[in-house]
Amino acid sequence: MISNSSLGIFDLQIKDSKLEDDADFQCQVGPAEDQ
């Protein structure tokens, strides 16, 4: 994950994907344990 937490920006970086990986994906977030 690429982030700039001071700006509240969090991006998921996906590498080495192939045509066979084609599907619907979903990213979910929640609070960290220490938050």
Describe the structure in your own words:
The protein has strands at residues 2-4, 9-11. It is an all-beta fold. The chain has a two-stranded antiparallel ribbon with strand order 1-2. Strand 1 (2-4) and strand 2 form a beta hairpin. The two termini are 19 Å apart.
List the helices and strands and how they pair.
Blueprint: E1 2-4, E2 9-11
Antiparallel strand pairs: 1-2
Distance between the termini: 19 Å
Largest sheet: 2 strands, antiparallel
**What is the tally of helical segments?**
0
If strands are numbered along the chain, what order do they take across the biggest sheet? Answer: 1-2
Query: Which runs of at least 5 residues are low in confidence (pLDDT < 50)?
Result: none
* Radius of gyration, taken over Cα atoms and rounded to an integer in Å: 13 Å
Order of helices and strands: EE
Classify the helix fraction into a percent range. Answer: under 10%
Counted beta strands = 2
Strand content: 15-25%
Q: What integer is the average pLDDT?
A: 85
Q: Helix/strand/pairing class, anyone?
A: mainly beta
Using the alpha-carbon principal axes, give the shape. elongated
Features:
35 residues; 17% strand
Short recap of the structure:
This protein has 35 residues and is an all-beta fold.
